[in-house]
Amino acid sequence: MVALAAIGSHGLNIASDANRALFQTAWQIHAVHAAVLLALALVRRSSRLLQAAFLLIAVGTAAFCGPLYTPALGLPRPPVFFAPLGGFLLIAGWFSVVLTGVFRSREHYATAMPIMVSDNRHGRRPEH
Protein backbone atom coordinates (compact mmCIF):
# COMPACT_ATOMS: atom_id res chain seq x y z
CA MET A 1 0.00 0.00 0.00
CA VAL A 2 2.87 2.34 0.79
CA ALA A 3 4.46 1.56 -2.57
CA LEU A 4 1.21 2.34 -4.39
CA ALA A 5 0.90 5.63 -2.52
CA ALA A 6 4.48 6.53 -3.44
CA ILE A 7 3.91 5.62 -7.08
CA GLY A 8 0.74 7.70 -7.16
CA SER A 9 2.36 10.69 -5.49
CA HIS A 10 5.86 10.74 -6.97
CA GLY A 11 6.39 8.07 -9.56
CA LEU A 12 3.66 8.84 -12.04
CA ASN A 13 3.56 11.68 -14.43
CA ILE A 14 -0.21 11.74 -14.62
CA ALA A 15 -1.22 14.08 -17.39
CA SER A 16 -4.81 14.64 -16.38
CA ASP A 17 -6.34 15.54 -13.06
CA ALA A 18 -9.11 13.04 -13.78
CA ASN A 19 -6.59 10.16 -13.91
CA ARG A 20 -4.97 11.38 -10.70
CA ALA A 21 -8.38 11.44 -9.00
CA LEU A 22 -9.11 7.92 -10.26
CA PHE A 23 -5.79 6.68 -8.90
CA GLN A 24 -6.41 8.31 -5.51
CA THR A 25 -9.92 6.85 -5.32
CA ALA A 26 -8.62 3.39 -6.19
CA TRP A 27 -5.86 3.67 -3.61
CA GLN A 28 -8.27 4.73 -0.84
CA ILE A 29 -10.71 1.91 -1.58
CA HIS A 30 -7.83 -0.55 -1.90
CA ALA A 31 -6.29 0.56 1.43
CA VAL A 32 -9.54 0.28 3.38
CA HIS A 33 -10.35 -3.14 1.98
CA ALA A 34 -6.79 -4.39 2.50
CA ALA A 35 -7.26 -3.70 6.22
CA VAL A 36 -10.66 -5.42 6.14
CA LEU A 37 -9.15 -8.45 4.41
CA LEU A 38 -6.47 -8.67 7.06
CA ALA A 39 -9.11 -8.68 9.81
CA LEU A 40 -11.24 -11.22 7.94
CA ALA A 41 -8.20 -13.46 7.43
CA LEU A 42 -7.91 -13.72 11.20
CA VAL A 43 -11.55 -14.70 11.84
CA ARG A 44 -12.89 -16.20 8.61
CA ARG A 45 -12.53 -19.83 9.68
CA SER A 46 -15.21 -19.30 12.31
CA SER A 47 -17.99 -18.89 9.75
CA ARG A 48 -18.81 -19.78 6.17
CA LEU A 49 -20.32 -16.34 5.73
CA LEU A 50 -17.00 -14.77 6.73
CA GLN A 51 -15.18 -17.06 4.31
CA ALA A 52 -17.55 -15.88 1.58
CA ALA A 53 -17.05 -12.27 2.66
CA PHE A 54 -13.27 -12.64 2.42
CA LEU A 55 -13.48 -14.02 -1.11
CA LEU A 56 -16.09 -11.49 -2.27
CA ILE A 57 -14.16 -8.53 -0.89
CA ALA A 58 -10.81 -9.75 -2.28
CA VAL A 59 -12.15 -10.27 -5.80
CA GLY A 60 -14.35 -7.18 -5.59
CA THR A 61 -11.42 -4.97 -4.60
CA ALA A 62 -9.34 -6.18 -7.54
CA ALA A 63 -12.21 -5.86 -10.00
CA PHE A 64 -13.24 -2.42 -8.75
CA CYS A 65 -9.82 -0.82 -8.26
CA GLY A 66 -8.13 -2.31 -11.32
CA PRO A 67 -10.03 -0.22 -13.87
CA LEU A 68 -9.35 2.88 -11.78
CA TYR A 69 -5.59 2.26 -11.58
CA THR A 70 -5.01 1.42 -15.25
CA PRO A 71 -5.46 4.88 -16.86
CA ALA A 72 -2.98 6.42 -14.43
CA LEU A 73 -0.48 3.64 -15.09
CA GLY A 74 -0.85 4.00 -18.85
CA LEU A 75 -2.27 0.50 -19.24
CA PRO A 76 -5.21 -0.50 -21.43
CA ARG A 77 -8.53 -0.31 -19.66
CA PRO A 78 -10.21 -3.61 -18.76
CA PRO A 79 -13.74 -4.30 -20.01
CA VAL A 80 -16.26 -1.72 -18.89
CA PHE A 81 -18.21 -4.14 -16.66
CA PHE A 82 -15.27 -4.82 -14.29
CA ALA A 83 -15.81 -1.82 -12.00
CA PRO A 84 -19.58 -2.33 -11.53
CA LEU A 85 -19.02 -6.05 -11.00
CA GLY A 86 -16.33 -5.25 -8.43
CA GLY A 87 -18.66 -2.82 -6.68
CA PHE A 88 -21.39 -5.44 -6.55
CA LEU A 89 -18.97 -8.01 -5.10
CA LEU A 90 -17.80 -5.51 -2.46
CA ILE A 91 -21.39 -4.82 -1.44
CA ALA A 92 -22.12 -8.56 -1.29
CA GLY A 93 -19.00 -9.09 0.85
CA TRP A 94 -20.02 -6.39 3.30
CA PHE A 95 -23.55 -7.83 3.39
CA SER A 96 -22.03 -11.19 4.36
CA VAL A 97 -20.16 -9.52 7.22
CA VAL A 98 -23.37 -7.85 8.43
CA LEU A 99 -25.31 -11.13 8.21
CA THR A 100 -22.63 -12.83 10.29
CA GLY A 101 -23.07 -10.18 12.97
CA VAL A 102 -26.85 -10.53 12.92
CA PHE A 103 -26.73 -14.31 13.22
CA ARG A 104 -24.11 -14.20 15.98
CA SER A 105 -26.05 -11.63 17.98
CA ARG A 106 -29.19 -13.77 17.74
CA GLU A 107 -27.24 -16.80 18.95
CA HIS A 108 -25.77 -14.75 21.79
CA TYR A 109 -29.12 -13.45 23.01
CA ALA A 110 -30.75 -16.85 22.63
CA THR A 111 -28.17 -18.45 24.95
CA ALA A 112 -27.65 -15.49 27.30
CA MET A 113 -31.29 -15.09 28.30
CA PRO A 114 -32.83 -18.50 29.03
CA ILE A 115 -36.59 -18.57 29.36
CA MET A 116 -37.79 -19.55 32.82
CA VAL A 117 -40.52 -22.16 32.64
CA SER A 118 -42.56 -22.80 35.72
CA ASP A 119 -45.45 -25.08 36.51
CA ASN A 120 -46.31 -22.92 39.49
CA ARG A 121 -49.57 -21.23 38.50
CA HIS A 122 -50.46 -19.99 41.97
CA GLY A 123 -47.34 -17.91 42.64
CA ARG A 124 -46.06 -20.17 45.45
CA ARG A 125 -42.56 -21.53 45.72
CA PRO A 126 -42.23 -25.15 44.67
CA GLU A 127 -41.56 -27.59 47.47
CA HIS A 128 -38.49 -29.80 47.26
Write the layout of secondary structure elements.
Layout lengths: L1 H10 L5 H27 L4 H26 L8 H31 L16
Quick rundown:
By secondary structure, the protein is mostly helical. It is built from 4 helices and no strands.
Notable characteristics:
128 residues, mainly alpha, 4 helices, 73% helix, elongated
Description:
The chain has four helices and no strands. The protein is elongated and about 85 Å long. The chain has one domain. With 128 residues, it is mostly helical. α2 (17-43) packs antiparallel against α3 and α3 (48-73) packs antiparallel against α4 (82-112). The longest helix is centred in the C-terminal third of the chain and has 31 residues, at 82-112.
As a whole number of angstroms, the C-alpha radius of gyration is 24 Å
Helix content: over 70%
SS strand fraction? under 5%
Give the averaged pLDDT, no decimals.
81
Bulk shape: elongated
Termini separation comes to: 68 Å
Please tally the β strands and state the result.
0
What class would the helix/strand composition place it in?
A: mainly alpha
**Which sheet architecture does the biggest sheet show?**
none
Task: Output the number of helix runs.
Answer: 4
What's the number of domains?
1
